[in-house]
Specification:
The structure holds two protein chains of two kinds. By secondary structure, chain A is an all-alpha fold. Chain A is built from one helix and no strands. Chain A has one helix at 13-20. Chain A starts with 12 loop residues before the first helix and ends with a helix. Chain B contains no helices and 28 strands. In chain B, strand 8 and strand 9 form a beta hairpin. In chain B, the strands form five sheets. In chain B, strands 17-16-15-14-18-19-20-21 form an eight-stranded mixed β-sheet, with no helix packed on it. Helices cover 0% and strands 56% of the residues of chain B. Chain B has strands at 7-8, 23-29, 36-46, 49-58, 61-67, 73-80, 86-90, 99-104, 108-116, 123-139, 143-148, 155-160, 169-173, 180-187, 189-197, 201-206, 212-217, 226-233, 236-242, 255-262, 269-276, 285-291, 294-299, 304-308, 313-318, 328-331, 337-341, 346-351. The A-B interface holds A 1, 3, 5-14, 16-18, 21-23 and B 174, 189, 191-192, 204, 206, 209, 211-214, 232, 234-237, 261-266, 268-272.
Chain lengths: 23, 352
């Protein structure tokens, strides 16, 4: 598969999603 | 109580460059007359000695077997159930001397903890949860997650056991607005938990905070997918799914497992690999287990097939023996063995 099809990737996705999600 | 058997299992050739190898090392027969439903392996400590034991479940009895010399097994404890039958064994990693079971008819109605009294060594059971339970999974760090209720009162709950199996803490995770059907831990990320839902979404939680981080819709080609394993690599989430409702397709063969990759930031996802049966073999996924890079499934044909997820193909195929369909298969959590069972109570242990 092509990585570009998946959009911008973040190695730190778990922490970033945790800071964005409602508590 | 125990039978020793050492023989080489017949293995039909697979279309594989590096064929897997299954050697039958032991067999045990559940003495209960009721239908055999599940098997598992776990550590159990007696008189200061921790041993890799086998747990077998029949409809109305769960038995613990300790290893003797030369691959023989001795039944040391049996827990009996009178009202509700056992559906599955739920091992809880990192907890010694305690195993959980799910009981019910078609759906789970109860989760019980099975253990032994420290005073007199007698079998004890404790009701942990009752109700309309949809899914349950034992997690690392002595945790047990379950989803229960219907749409308006859907709950996702984590119980944490103390080191000795006692004193459990409870915590709720934010429920998605739909029923969670299966759970999977994310390998190497102890605070991340995945779930698959009835609407073919994958949801991800932060176990520390209870937050629902993301709901990600996956391909509608397969409904009611079961999530077996997940790991995060280079910022992407790789998930191994099975598709019990998949139709057999001539062009694709029979996809039993599938590896998909998800970008959790964007929720965009794509299929990476389909794990199909060797040519000439038919059947759909009935039941299965994934450990490390090995996936095993019981098929509707009554056979067991094993895939190496890295190689991408079936490495071993176990036809029904003798005139008995396989009905469940598990990887041992204590070593690299495959535990395969038949409804009549025969459990076969293979070295893979």
């Amino acid at each position: 598969c092509n990585k570009a099809d998946l959009g911008p990737i973040s190695l730190n996705w778990f922490d970033e999603l945790s800071s964005e999600a409602p508590p | 109580h125990s039978i020793e058997q050492t023989e080489i299992a017949d293995l039909p050739a697979c279309d594989s460059l590096n064929p897997g190898y299954l050697q039958l090392v032991s067999k045990l027969k559940n003495p209960s007359g009721s239908c055999s439903v599940d098997v598992s392996a776990m550590w159990w400590e007696r008189a200061g000695l921790k041993e890799p034991c086998i747990i077998t479940a029949c409809e109305y009895a769960v038995s613990l077997w300790k290893p003797l010399d030369t691959w023989q097994w001795k039944n040391i404890y049996t827990w009996h159930f009178t009202e509700v039958p056992v559906l599955q064994i739920v091992p809880v990693p990192d907890v010694c001397n305690l195993v959980c079971v799910a009981l019910g008819n078609l759906e789970i109605r109860e989760i019980r903890a099975l253990f032994c009294s420290p005073d007199d060594g007698s079998e004890k059971q404790l009701l942990l949860k009752s109700g309309n339970i949809k899914a349950v999974l034992g997690l690392t760090k002595r945790r047990l997650v379950n989803s229960s209720g219907t749409l308006c009162d859907h709950q996702v709950e984590i119980m944490t056991f103390a080191e000795d199996g006692g004193n459990k803490e409870k915590q709720f995770l934010m429920p998605p607005e739909e029923t969670v059907l299966t759970f999977a831990e994310v390998q190497g990320m102890q605070e991340a938990l995945l779930g698959t839902t009835v609407m073919n979404n994958i949801v991800i939680w932060n176990l520390k905070t209870g937050q629902l981080l993301k709901k990600m819709h996956i391909d509608d080609s397969y409904q009611a997918s079961v999530c077996h394993k997940a790991y995060s690599e280079m910022g992407l989430l790789f998930v191994v799914l099975s598709h019990p409702c998949a139709k057999e397709s001539e062009s694709l063969g029979s996809p039993v497992f599938q590896l998909i990759v998800i970008n959790p930031k964007t929720t965009l996802n794509v299929g990476v690999m389909l794990y199909c049966l060797p040519q000439g073999q038919a059947g759909r996924f009935l039941e299965g287990d994934v450990k490390d890079h090995c996936a095993a499934a019981v098929l509707t044909s009554g056979a067991i097939a094993i895939w190496d997820l890295l190689l991408g193909h079936c490495t071993a195929f176990l036809p029904p023996v003798p005139d008995q369909n396989w009905s469940f298969v598990k990887w041992s959590g204590t070593d690299s063995h495959l535990l395969a069972g038949q409804k009549d109570g025969n459990i076969f242990i293979y070295r893979y």
